[in-house]
Amino acid sequence: MFPIVFLVCLAAIGTLAHPTTKRDAAQLITSCNKPNTVAITFDDGPYIYGKDLINTLDKNNVKATFFINGNNFRCIYDSDMMDNVKYAYDHGHQLASHTWHHKNLSTLSWDQLHDEMWRVEQALQRIVGVNPAFMRPPYGEYNDQVLQVSGARGQKVVIWDFDNGDTAGLSAAQSKGRYKDLVSKHPKNVLTLNHETHNTTVYDVIPYAIRKLKDAGYKFATVAECFGGDPYQSIVGPQTKDVSV
């Protein structure tokens, strides 16, 4: 390991990184493929409820997947947010990319796409030492170019087949109603969308959803587990923070 300087989110972080190896377009994942499995996923973090959410998941023996932004609700390089990212990773949850600024990727150029993806990959490598193998495009918006850039970066693109509706303004009761309806239909597997930035999701909806899904006999898994494959392209260990910062 070597010392680095963690910069604030508004500062330049480095030179745009383009992979040099040509790869096929990314594989698009819209559902799990292991029967009777549910993947609980969270977008838009890290955020202030992160550790409480992880404690709830751990108490219920549930491993989740966190699609991380670099500079959305909070800056990933804030010390408390770095702690949250480390906490999730150290507790065995999967970390994946949600890109840097949470932009609509289908509106960006080739270079802009690489920049959005690379910056959050670099942050995860610096903070916990992993290079994610899965990416979720903000708003679920993607086009052929997004798939091509993701493929060039060695990542699979993940959408979802169940949305609890928290970012659409649904109340906790309405989100729980969606989970209740889901369980009553009992699909063979489920890939969920939730947001760790909503306190009602963290403290009310998720505990309810876990109970309902457990009672229905579902097994919980990370995205990598429910679909198959490694969660990370590489694991090298975190880099150290420069003492001058």
UniProtKB/TrEMBL annotation:
Keyword Glycoprotein in record: yes
SUPFAM superfamilies: Glycoside hydrolase/deacetylase
GO cellular component, one term: side of membrane
Keyword Glycoprotein: yes
UniProt-listed GO biological process terms: carbohydrate metabolic process; cell wall organization
UniProt subcellular location: Cell membrane
Signal sequence region: 1-17
Stretches of the chain forming a coiled coil according to its record: none
InterPro entries noted in UniProt: Glyco_hydro/deAcase_b/a-brl, NODB_dom
Alphabetic keyword roster: Carbohydrate metabolism, Cell membrane, Cell wall biogenesis/degradation, Glycoprotein, GPI-anchor, Hydrolase, Lipoprotein, Membrane, Metal-binding, Signal
Domain NodB homology: 36-221
Membrane topology: Lipid-anchor; GPI-anchor
Annotated GO MF terms: hydrolase activity, acting on carbon-nitrogen (but not peptide) bonds; metal ion binding
Cofactor: Co(2+)
Pfam families: Polysacc_deac_1
Name of the protein described by the UniProt record: NodB homology domain-containing protein
Top-level taxonomy: Eukaryota, Fungi, Dikarya, Basidiomycota, Agaricomycotina
